[in-house]
Design a protein that fits this description.
There is one protein chain. By secondary structure, this protein is an alpha/beta fold. The chain has one domain: Ribokinase (UDP-N-acetylmuramoyl-L-alanine:D-glutamate ligase, 3-Layer(aba) Sandwich). The chain contains 11 helices and 16 strands. The strands form 3 sheets. An 8-stranded mixed β-sheet has the order 6-3-11-12-13-14-15-16, sandwiched between helices. A 5-stranded mixed β-sheet has the order 1-5-4-9-10. Helix 6 crosses helix 7. The two termini are 25 Å apart.
Length: 348
């Protein structure tokens, strides 16, 4: 994924969509392969810039770096999984405009299957401007979904969704997410939810259909009504998930099940940009579950994926490969993690 300097913007190659004989259709192979993970949720195009400090009102500010790339919680989680070596597919709705073509091209470049994307004339991905403070790596997101056409439950292939080992959902397009979670329960897959807004009217229903709930601290406290993350995680389990993880940025992550309760410290790195940290944490967590690692190892791995993502501007730019993960964790991981990485090196 190219990063643009302040003096040059390089246009990315766009793969054109095939001509559409109908207003809305889904293209899928006759015998679709089984995927490790299918994602249903938001797809966005992000315009991102780093500034020396967050802008004051009524000022002009020169960006030190600029990048345009795909985004969205579930979408970026899929990209992280693909980089690590999992097979993944995105299910959503896009159109025939330039932003849709850009988003689809970004998926293809990162090995994300798009055979079940529904294409509708006039639809478009969400669109965001993201400002990153150079001093802290913290970001502010300005976004719109004005041209987004939400995926409908009747536009999804139930057999396809039920075939995945894991279903990754975010809360955008809640009706489709709810139906996808119900369909996943008909198969043998597990549902992982990335939720952000505790005031979303459908969110409680979605949590109740979730196997693995990974949410930021703000959501956990707001949704549960508790005052600390440990109490919040315990409350979240009562809604049905078998694993509840509360992420708290630089403070790390708190994980709770019926049998285990522990805190995973964050890896300390120089953060260039924190955009997408939570999204790739979900991807790393699912990858660990796919490998059937112990839960503490899974959480440490996800924390490391999130840390390495911060190395560059963009939610996807520095999402690590498995080789990068092995190198990082063999140096900085726990003894249990180092042993796991050594075993992975021998088996993969």
């Amino acid at each position: 994924m190219p990063v643009f300097s302040k003096d040059q913007i390089e246009e990315r190659r766009i793969v054109p969509l095939r001509p559409q004989p109908r207003q809305c259709r889904r293209t899928a192979p006759m015998n679709p392969p089984a995927f490790d993970v299918i994602g249903v949720g938001a797809c966005a195009v992000d315009y991102m810039g780093i500034v020396s400090r967050f802008p004051q009102p009524d000022t002009k500010n020169r960006m030190k770096e600029f990048i345009r790339q795909g985004g969205g919680p579930a979408s970026t989680g899929l990209v992280a999984l693909s980089r690590l070596g999992a097979t993944v597919s995105y299910l959503g709705k896009l159109g025939d405009d330039e932003l849709s073509r850009f988003a689809l091209d970004a998926f293809l470049e990162d090995g994300v299957d798009i055979s079940h994307v529904v294409k509708e004339k006039g639809a478009s991905p969400a669109f965001a401007f993201i400002i990153t403070d150079e001093a802290t790596g913290e970001r502010t997101i300005l976004w719109t979904d004005e041209s987004v056409s939400l995926l409908r439950p009747d536009e999804m292939d139930g057999e396809f969704i039920a075939s995945a080992k894991f279903l990754l959902l975010d809360e955008y397009g809640a009706q489709a997410a709810l139906e996808a979670a119900r369909l996943a329960r008909q198969g043998k897959g597990q549902t992982v939810l990335d939720a952000e807004n505790p005031d979303n009217r459908e969110i409680e229903q979605l949590v109740r259909l979730t196997d693995v709930l990974i949410v930021p601290e703000e959501f956990a406290l707001g949704f549960s009504g508790k005052k600390n993350v440990e109490s919040a995680a315990e409350a979240l389990l009562r809604f049905g998930p078998r694993i509840a993880v509360v992420t708290s940025g630089a403070k790390g992550a708190f994980c709770k099940t019926v049998d285990e309760t522990f805190h995973q410290p964050a890896f300390q790195v120089k953060a260039v940009d924190t955009t997408g940290c939570g999204d790739v944490f979900h991807g790393g967590f699912i990858y660990g579950l796919l490998r059937d690692w112990p839960l503490k190892t899974v959480t440490e791995f996800a924390s490391a994926v999130s840390a390495l993502k911060c190395r560059a501007l963009g939610g996807r730019t520095a999402a690590p490969t498995m080789d990068e993960m092995k190198e990082f964790l063999l140096e900085r991981g726990s003894e249990a993690m180092k042993q796991t990485m050594e075993e992975e090196h021998r088996t993969l």
